Description:
Layout: E1 2-10, E2 20-24, E3 28-34, H1 49-64, H2 72-87, E4 101-109, E5 112-118, E6 123-127, E7 132-135, H3 148-154, E8 175-180, E9 186-192, H4 198-201, H5 207-214, H6 218-231, E10 244-252
Helix pairs in contact: 1-2
Amino acid sequence: MQLCTEVYTETSPTHVHNEDFVLAGDDFVIVLDGATPVPGLETGCIHDVPWLVRHLGLRLAEGLTDPDTKSLADNLEQAIQQVCDDHAASCDLTDPNSPSSTVALLRLRDDQVDYLVLADSPIVLHLDDGDVLAITDDRLDHLDDYSVPAVAAARNSEAGFWVASTRPDAALHAVTGSIALTDRPLRAAAVLTDGAATLVERHGESWEQLLDILDAGPHELVRRTRMADETATGRLNGKRHDDATAVLCRFLEASTAPTTKA
């Protein structure tokens, strides 16, 4: 079995830098969505969000390509610890406003697919029998108070929500699982940041409809999402524009997978 991917990422019209990170290998996908900082908020860190997601993404890739296979949660815990070690000497890692990121990981291992979702970057699995399984972590949607101090207090706490930041044990609170392809074959999968999932999470489309659009390519999904976000009326759930990253994954037998020509 081979994982074939199409990737597209686009910076928000209101952002200078893309705070998403995406990396796809022969058997894994990494998608991160850095949390945009509140202007003027002290974070105790000299690094910006793009630094965090880039370093975390590359550390995750090192772990996922290691021949000593670990669980996705163990890989994430190790990567967070390594990033903490990278800037502990220069930054205050006890600050609750330290830069943070969501995490979505997908890995093909023999005839098994492993997944991990931490915070609001979903993975959507399209099973060969037509069923759709959305892997989501919606704990951030259920806070009682969204003021800056309240969110800081709820971040990486049992009563709040979990993200990749300065606590490696956040990885142990991720939504994880595996699917044996011999039991439940997969047709495709989507790995998304929330900026590419608003057709469902904000505009009322189904995950099935999102997958139908994604089948035309990740670029088309982001284009349709931008159109819906731009023309939406009334009170929006979250900011109107965000960085958007979409990965379309197909699961093919090695003999039928496309080859790359030099």
